[in-house]
């Protein structure tokens, strides 16, 4: 699971921090370890134009949050929801549209680690809540 | 050290986990089960099992005898009376039973105060806090002032003696054994409830000598099955307490206006109990007596002190708890810059070592650890290696080597 890609993305600083002019701020929690994430998203004309996150977590959750933001910035809400739908299918081991997930599909192996799926999904579940807030 | 042949009783120890021989350091969560206990349990289910107490046929009689013999055995084990031994589903249920029963009986009202500590497992913290909100009694909280969550007797500093003190015998995070005798001396008149989940598996205790009033523990942390636990309480209190659950064997007479209850201990044993689990607890206890509690304690002490010594030498590893002879069976730690979930995952994947990572259902204690932590970022959780009869010093050497490797992979120098 601890591939170079995950290790590199876990240390990425680009999306770490607070987004002062965020339109949506959403908090997520992983109850099993006490990890928390605050997700900031900025929208323009229905498109996610910027995003950042704060919080501490394991390498899997941090890499996943970075990859998540990289994947959804530049997408509109429906496209982001479509990615989300495919991410959920991927972790469940169901068929999913690989071409829609880009780099996220490199983390497909997470389906073989049921105890780590919560870490991986923390940022994605927070994204889902944030998108629900965005009308 | 205990004989290596003990390890032969635990077939899981021969398992290969990702190509490595299993090293099981998660006994504080739940112990492995000896083959003998499983075989005896299997034999009981195959030949003797039926529901208990009500029927007159042979199997019902054998099962009832087994259950009552377990009760008798536990009474002797704790130096208590048989009618004071109540079978529950585990420590959590035992503690919730006491809190709820006290409130229902009017034995805990708005003028009363309860003393709990910040090192408690949620099961001995949340019921008190939550029910104090619903029933207006007062809760005083003792904060540990020693090294990383170490609780000292001076920390129990309250103006008024509480009606109830609810305290753990041993922290499930730091492994510290709490001096219950000193707490009793300091508060001679309080009702003393002890969460024995972590400690009872290590040492045979005498509830009368300790002067405690209630004791809760679980079978699954002492080689027995999960889903069965014990609440021991002093008869005088149990007689006054309103039952927590109604139905089954706990009933005496049922009318439209009034209901009366069975005698102790049945008054608190509603519904069909975990009959197999209770038999399993007996088999586990007999197995442990065969090993000898003194030998077991000595063995675990050696492992713990060795682990403290080994791990404290590793740079960038922070160890929690008192790090002295009062720390038993548990070593909780973090590697600077590496999240405990990553440590635990890699210990399993690369070395076959099973440890627990997370907040260990002790979130208030995690906040205390954070205040003293020298880590760049404290992850609100720890990695916990916990030891039992089947562990060896060599396994701790492998853990230390593995931690060094993980540090390398995460560039922690």
Automatic annotation (TrEMBL), chain A:
Q: Which residue range or ranges hold the NIF system FeS cluster assembly NifU N-terminal domain?
A: 1-116
What Pfam families does UniProt report for this protein, alphabetically?
A: NifU_N
Domain of life (superkingdom): Bacteria
Matching Gene3D superfamilies, A to Z? 3.90.1010.10
- Where are the coiled-coil regions? none
Q: Entry's CDD domains?
A: IscU_like
PANTHER family for the chain:
IRON-SULFUR CLUSTER ASSEMBLY ENZYME NIFU HOMOLOG
Protein name as it appears in the record: Nitrogen fixation protein NifU
TrEMBL record, chain B:
Report the top EC class in one word.
transferase
* InterPro entries named among the record's database cross-references: Aminotrans_V_dom, Aminotrans_V_PyrdxlP_BS, Cys_dSase_SufS, PyrdxlP-dep_Trfase, PyrdxlP-dep_Trfase_major, PyrdxlP-dep_Trfase_small
Record keywords, A-Z:
Pyridoxal phosphate, Transferase
Q: Provide the coiled-coil residue spans.
A: none
Name the job this protein performs: Catalyzes the removal of elemental sulfur and selenium atoms from L-cysteine, L-cystine, L-selenocysteine, and L-selenocystine to produce L-alanine.
Q: Protein name, please?
A: Cysteine desulfurase
Q: Which organism is the protein's source?
A: Thermosipho affectus
Query: Please, which domain of life does this record's source organism belong to?
Result: Bacteria
Alphabetized CDD domains for the sequence: SufS_like
Which PANTHER family does the UniProt record give? CYSTEINE DESULFURASE (PTHR43586), CYSTEINE DESULFURASE 1, CHLOROPLASTIC (PTHR43586:SF8)
């Amino acid at each position: 699971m601890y591939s170079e890609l995950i290790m590199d993305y876990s240390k990425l600083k680009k999306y770490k921090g607070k987004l002062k002019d965020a339109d949506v701020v959403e908090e997520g929690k992983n109850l099993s370890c006490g990890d928390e994430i605050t997700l900031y998203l900025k929208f323009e004309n229905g498109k996610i134009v910027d995003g950042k996150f704060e919080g501490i977590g394991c390498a899997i959750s941090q890499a996943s949050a970075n990859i998540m933001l990289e994947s959804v910035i530049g997408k509109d809400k429906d496209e982001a929801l479509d990615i989300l739908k495919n991410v959920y299918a991927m972790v469940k081991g169901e068929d999913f549209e690989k071409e829609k997930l880009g780099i996220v599909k490199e983390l497909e192996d997470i389906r073989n680690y049921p105890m780590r799926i919560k870490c991986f999904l923390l940022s994605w579940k927070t994204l889902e809540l944030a998108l629900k807030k965005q009308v | 050290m205990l004989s290596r042949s003990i390890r032969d009783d635990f077939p899981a120890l021969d398992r290969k986990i990702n190509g490595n021989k299993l090293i099981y350091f998660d006994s504080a969560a739940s112990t492995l089960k000896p083959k003998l206990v499983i075989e005896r349990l299997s034999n009981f289910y195959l030949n003797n099992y039926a529901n208990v107490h009500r029927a007159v046929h042979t199997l019902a009689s054998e099962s009832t005898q087994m259950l009552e013999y377990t009760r008798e055995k536990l009474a002797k084990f704790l130096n208590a009376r048989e009618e004071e031994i109540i079978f529950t589903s585990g420590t959590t249920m035992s503690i919730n039973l006491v809190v709820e029963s006290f409130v229902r009986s009017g034995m805990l009202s708005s003028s009363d105060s309860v003393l709990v500590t910040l090192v408690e497992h949620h099961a001995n913290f949340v019921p008190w806090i939550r029910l104090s909100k619903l029933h207006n009694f007062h809760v005083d909280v003792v904060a540990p002032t020693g090294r990383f969550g170490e609780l000292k007797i001076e920390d129990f500093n309250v103006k008024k003696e509480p009606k109830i003190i609810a305290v753990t015998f041993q922290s499930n995070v730091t492994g510290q054994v709490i001096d219950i005798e000193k707490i009793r001396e300091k508060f001679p008149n309080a009702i003393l409830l002890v969460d024995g989940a972590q400690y009872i598996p290590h040492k045979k205790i005498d509830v009368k000598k300790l002067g405690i009033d209630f004791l809760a523990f679980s079978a699954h942390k002492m080689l027995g099955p999960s889903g069965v636990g014990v609440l021991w309480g002093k008869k005088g209190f149990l007689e006054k307490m309103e039952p927590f659950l109604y139905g089954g064997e706990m009933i005496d007479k049922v009318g439209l206006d009034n209901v009366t209850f069975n005698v102790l201990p049945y008054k608190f044993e509603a519904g069909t109990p975990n009959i197999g689990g209770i038999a399993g607890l007996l088999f586990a206890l007999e197995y442990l007596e065969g090993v000898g509690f003194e030998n077991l304690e000595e063995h675990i002490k050696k492992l713990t002190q060795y682990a403290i010594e080994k791990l404290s030498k590793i740079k960038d590893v922070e160890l929690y708890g008192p790090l002295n002879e009062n720390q038993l069976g548990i070593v909780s730690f973090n590697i600077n810059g590496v999240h405990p979930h990553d440590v635990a995952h890699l210990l399993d994947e690369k070395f076959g070592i099973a440890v627990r990572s997370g907040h260990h259902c002790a979130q208030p204690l995690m906040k205390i650890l954070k205040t003293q932590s020298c880590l760049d970022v404290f992850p609100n959780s720890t990695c916990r290696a916990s030891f039992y009869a089947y562990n060896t010093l060599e396994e701790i050497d492998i853990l230390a080597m593995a931690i060094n490797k993980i540090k390398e992979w995460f560039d922690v120098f």
